[in-house]
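Bump. Still looking for Cupin structure tokens.
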Amino acid sequence: MTLTPGITPEKDGLDGLAWNVVGHTYTPKLHSENAFIWHANIPDGTFVPPHIHPTQDEWICMLEGTLEVEFGPEKHVAHAGDTIRMPMGLAHGIYNRSGETATCIFGVAPSRKLFELFGKLDNVTDPEELVRISAEHEVDFLPPPE
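Sorry for the wait, here they are.
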């Protein structure tokens, strides 16, 4: 797939898409084989458990609110204006413990199977199913701590 020229309006997703993934609203804004970018609304008290992208670098540009990112035992706090860098192969978890909704722009490069994954995860609530589907799309969740 090739990047097409144009503008994705603020309130719109590509092809009218928006997904509910782990309680977050993800709205795709740009998709090509080289990159995938989406807008995210991340409510307070929600999170993405620790996982690894073995084939993609990932980043988050914070627009509003605060997120915590854990790289193993290292914990970092990101605020509006900050950019979070998550290199491929490095386990990371993303948490909103701020008391407010956070909004941000996520991206991955290359896009690989993530766009397809979000379509399959839309409204999936069973953690085991989420882990299984994700593994089929090159995202590996770590086992929960004991």
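Helices lie at 114-121, 127-135.

Edit: fixed formatting.
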